[in-house]
Specification:
The chain is an alpha+beta fold. About 30% of the residues lie in helices and about 25% in strands. It has 21 helices and 26 strands. The strands form seven sheets. A six-stranded mixed beta sheet has the order 7-8-6-3-17-16. A hairpin with a 2-residue loop joins strand 10 and strand 11. Helix 14 packs antiparallel against helix 16, helix 15 packs across helix 16 and helix 16 crosses helix 20. The relative contact order is 0.08.
Length: about 750
């Protein structure tokens, strides 16, 4: 859906778009020229200047926005012909400028509805009319989008409709087989005055234990939601001072390319399993919600940086919105129903490019609507909206063009770099280092520069290097700083440990119509046990940091000559022993994240052999899990995944098969960890750890490994096999003997 309301003057030159990669042309005098790239860099510099001066041509207004979300459990707000009022939920929307409402489960999520989706249109129209009746004639609906049980609709006050344009919708299914619409997201984006807004309504994966599935659903919806708004809309955003939305060189934008984003819906995050269902019910009924909020899965995952990065959520002061007995205010404890822990499944989050431009006024739920097992949630915001003064903007644009005109069509550009070699020194695992290079235009003409790939290569640098900015333009005398960063993540560490590379590269900085500069990047890998294989770790009785990467040097020093000098890696023994010695009774063991600084220090102790300090036990457990997950090959190879569904009739056979086929070192580590987790379970009353939680941890760090955590895609077959492996892990942990 699209609308062209309130068309405005577009006489300003639009930025040049590259329909395909720019082509370098060598001139007769041997210089490299690329007119298309040059024009793009020129325009990028113009809009960078406009962005720095946007306060000179921008007025700001305040807009009140109401967001609401409700999982209606396939019910309608009519009981025996009597319509329930939405007034208590959305009635105060009449005082707002924009009202955005999301629904989940507007129809039953059965196989027929998911496959055919033939009831959603009629049901969505029903709910739209109910909202329209609540808001009254002063509001117009600008867009709605539905997908099976999902519906999002956006209403705007009529007085603003002439300033609404470029309205688009999208939907992403992430349900069955990763594409079906029983789970997913529907979204609306629009330009309101000269600010861009995006509203996403989503329904994520269910079940208390499926945190990984919810995180993956979020990432899929975020990455796959795109709006092809057209070049005119993109150019208008750029002229308003939002350069970042043009850098991709396309006519489409993603979720985070907007000034304000609201993410609403049944996100399905629950209370962590370490709190028993009965305890959750007791505290929810009593209104003692603070201990539950601390163990809320969404809060935990956001704190760990795994989901909704850059989003904010207001303080929760209301009781969990799920699971109620329909038509009551009581949590559902009926004996014929499966007992479920109350949870804040229904949430409203937001993200603004300028955080000071968004203020939340309230965040609450509506207890008077009782037809569903969920309670509706609503929140009111005051957003700062841009309103461009076009005459002032055009005048500033002309000023900038005159500055460029002053220097164009002259002789060859000359720049000076303060250094052509960057030595990052020792680079440690999971670290990011940045060094600057100062570039100065010492000539008399404009200097346009960009990093280009080396001969026969596609990328401008190796994957562990990032350059910013990758291109730019300097007027005579102008100085800017290039930032070169290197990041040593798990994938890079594994490659270095396997001898598949070293920390050096050469970057080519091309001066348009001028010379090339060659920048040498060097670093020394401070070797770490993280990202190594079990087979190699057991070869070394000395700290890994002292073990050379070069096999010839190891041979010369007599290190690792025997096939295996240890039964299990010493690093694993050290950290398990530390937890065993003083942490088995720690409350919320394996649930609370560690301290980032301490995790780095523990990792350094493991790599250098230094003694542990008085580290927090949660930092120890986080390091243990990341060590196992970061192995170059999981403890349990994927070839040993069960190929059939695991149940009580075959679990013994599958468990025996696993033990028989494990490689020797993996067998030792597996037995060692099972024994440790059994010890942990002996203190479950104190540490609040359950066998199911330990089984899931085993599955995530010893079976799936780091590569699974960085992937957002899972097939139905892999989910079944992972579930079977988790059952096997539970069996090993809870049986008397292996």
């Amino acid at each position: 859906m699209s609308t062209g309301l309130c068309a405005r003057d577009t006489s300003m030159d639009p930025p040049l778009r590259l329909s395909q990669p720019p082509q370098d042309i060598e001139t007769d005098d041997g210089r490299i020229r690329n007119q298309e790239a040059s024009a793009k860099i020129r325009d990028a510099w113009i809009y960078k200047q406009i962005r720095t001066r946007q306060e000179e041509f921008t007025q700001y207004k305040e807009a009140r926005i109401l967001c609401g979300t409700w999982n209606v459990n396939a019910k309608k707000a009519d009981i025996e012909g009597v319509q329930l009022s939405l007034e208590h939920w959305l009635g105060h929307g009449v005082q707002c400028d924009i009202v955005a409402v999301g629904f989940q489960e507007i129809v039953d999520l059965n196989a027929v509805n998911v496959a055919v989706d033939n009831k959603s249109l009629k049901t969505s129209q029903y709910w739209v009319e109910r909202i329209r009746g609540t808001l009254g004639a002063d509001f117009m609906m600008v867009a709605e989008k539905h997908l099976v049980g999902l519906l999002v609709c956006v209403f705007v006050k009529r007085v603003h409709m002439q300033r609404v344009k470029y309205v688009h919708v999208d939907s992403v299914g992430v349900g069955v087989m990763g594409i079906a619409g029983n789970k997913g997201g529907v979204s609306v984006r629009l330009q309101f005055y000269d600010s861009t807004l995006c509203i996403i309504c989503s329904h994520l994966a269910a079940h208390r234990e499926n945190v990984v599935g919810r995180n993956a659903d979020y990432a899929n919806i975020l990455n796959k939601t795109r709006f092809d708004i057209g070049l005119e809309a993109v150019q208008e955003v750029i002229r308003s001072g939002s350069l970042h939305q043009w850098a991709t060189g396309t006519s489409s934008v993603g979720v985070l390319d907007h000034d304000h984003v609201f993410w609403i819906g049944d996100l399905n995050y629950r209370i962590d399993e370490s709190i028993k269902i009965e305890d959750c019910l007791y505290r929810a009924v009593k209104g003692d919600i603070q201990p539950l909020i601390v163990m809320d899965q969404l809060n935990i995952e956001r704190a760990r940086g795994r989901v909704f990065q850059g989003f904010e959520e207001g303080n929760i002061t209301f009781k969990p919105t799920y699971k109620y007995q329909p038509y009551t205010d009581d949590y559902d404890t009926r004996p014929e129903k499966k007992l479920r822990a109350p949870a804040w499944c229904d949430r409203i989050l937001w993200s603004s490019q300028n955080p000071s431009h968004m203020k939340q006024l309230d965040y609450s739920c509506c207890s008077s609507l009782k037809i569903s097992d969920h309670k509706p949630v609503m929140s009111t915001f005051v957003a700062v909206i841009k309103d461009i003064v076009q005459a002032k903007r055009d005048a500033i644009h002309q000023e900038i063009i005159k500055v460029i005109d002053k220097y164009e069509n002259q002789s060859m550009p000359i720049v000076r770099l303060d250094k052509l070699m960057l030595d990052f020194g020792e680079v440690r695992y999971d670290s990011k280092l940045t060094l600057p290079i100062t570039i100065t235009n010492t000539g008399q003409v404009l200097a346009q520069f960009r990093f280009v790939p080396k001969l026969d290569e596609v990328e401008i640098c190796k994957r562990w290097i990032k350059v910013s900015p990758a291109y730019g333009m300097l007027i005579p005398g102008e100085v800017t700083t290039l930032e070169i960063s290197i990041t040593l993540d798990n994938a890079t560490a594994r490659a270095l440990n396997a001898g598949e590379g070293i920390l050096n590269d050469i970057l080519v900085l091309r001066l348009e119509n001028g010379r090339d500069f060659y920048i040498t990047i060097n670093g020394t890998y401070a070797r770490s046990c993280f990202g190594m294989s079990l087979d190699e770790l057991v070869m070394y009785s000395v700290p890994v940091r002292t073990v050379p990467l070069d096999p010839a040097k190891r041979l010369e020093l007599g290190i690792g000559n025997s096939p295996a000098s240890l039964c299990i890696p010493k690093e694993l023994w050290r950290i398990v022993d530390a937890i065993y010695g003083r942490g088995l009774q720690e409350r919320d063991l394996f649930s609370v994240p560690g301290l980032e600084k301490e995790v780095r220090e523990i990792r350094e102790c493991l790599d250098t052999g230094a003694p542990f300090g008085p580290f927090n036990i949660h930092s120890m457990t986080e390091t243990l899990v990341s060590f196992l997950a970061g192995l170059s090959t999981p403890v349990i190879p994927p070839t040993l995944f069960p190929t059939l569904e695991v149940d009580n009739t075959n679990i013994v056979a599958w468990s025996r098969k696993l033990l028989e086929e494990l490689p020797p070192i993996s067998y030792n580590v597996f037995i060692y960890m099972m024994s440790f987790f059994r010890e942990v379970l002996l203190y479950k009353d104190a540490n609040r750890v359950t066998a199911a939680k330990l089984a899931r941890i085993c599955c995530e760090c010893m079976v799936l490994g780091f590569s699974f955590k960085t992937s957002n895609e899972e097939t139905k077959n892999s989910i079944t096999r992972r579930a079977g492996m988790q059952i096997i892990m539970d069996n090993f942990i809870t049986t008397d003997s292996i």
